[in-house]
Amino acid sequence: QPLVLNYVKGTLALAHNGNLVNAPELRRELEYSGAIFQTTIDSETIAYYIARERVQTKNVQEAVSRTMDDIEGAYSLVIMTHTKLIAARDPNGFRPLCIGELPDGNGYAFASESCALDAVGATLLRDVEPGEIVIADTKTGELRSIKDHCGRPDTQMCVFEFIYFSRPDSIIEGSSVHEARKQAGRFLAQEH
Fold it and tell me: Which of 6, 28, 146, 171 is most buried by a 10 A CB count?
């Protein structure tokens, strides 16, 4: 990753963290409509859906929103076109995704972990909310969001983000991964 596609509306790059539970069905549907896949990754299915929706919508963020109506599972997405950088997080919030501001206000960055923002000198602004689509527009320099998929009562991050996947120097949902791991150890010690 990123997966880069050239299609009728231009070029689309997509990076994806997670797994779709309905990827086999979506892929089969696309294949029966003539899609030719180059990989076996869920990311390619997502990219095809976005490209298909983009042909029928006025902008790429609307295509992402419509794609989110169809894909199910755990995902954090970063999508780039020639003029926009877009981040989207699954409505359940299974996978983390955060927003950072580049040094001297020179733009924005999205990452699964805040330590990646640290590596490029960006300042952590906040986490992308479960179901939120965040758009960084290079023409306006603004950051805006679409919250049509937000507000599910059953949001829940995968516990393995704090236990195993994430680096200890990351901040996820406002909590230090290192401190969360120490606290989990305290709870285990008290319980056993």
Answer: 171
